[in-house]
Write a structure and sequence with these properties.
mainly alpha, 3 helices, 81 residues, 69% helix
Length: 81
């Protein structure tokens, strides 16, 4: 089943108008679930980052945020640090 899904995805890239690349209901379901899991993971990461910023602000150590964390905060408009 996974091989067939991969083949359809590859074929969609090769020839988007071909019926071979048409999504099956199962493929659409799997794709939608993957998107939902990714969105949930991002929301958890955002909540963790906000909690960390709140804690560091409380103790006056916002300077302990890494460059990567600062970029994440800026990209998601979570804090003005």
């Amino acid at each position: 089943m996974e091989d067939l899904r991969l083949l359809r995805q590859l074929w969609k890239v090769i020839d988007p108008n071909s019926p071979i690349g048409t999504d099956t209901p199962e493929n659409r379901y799997v794709t939608e679930k993957e998107k939902e899991r990714a969105a949930a993971r991002l929301e958890r990461e955002k909540a963790q980052m906000v909690a960390k910023v709140d804690h560091l602000t409380l103790i006056g150590r916002v300077d302990k945020l890494s460059r990567t964390e600062l970029i994440f905060l800026r990209e998601h408009k979570l804090a003005n640090v």
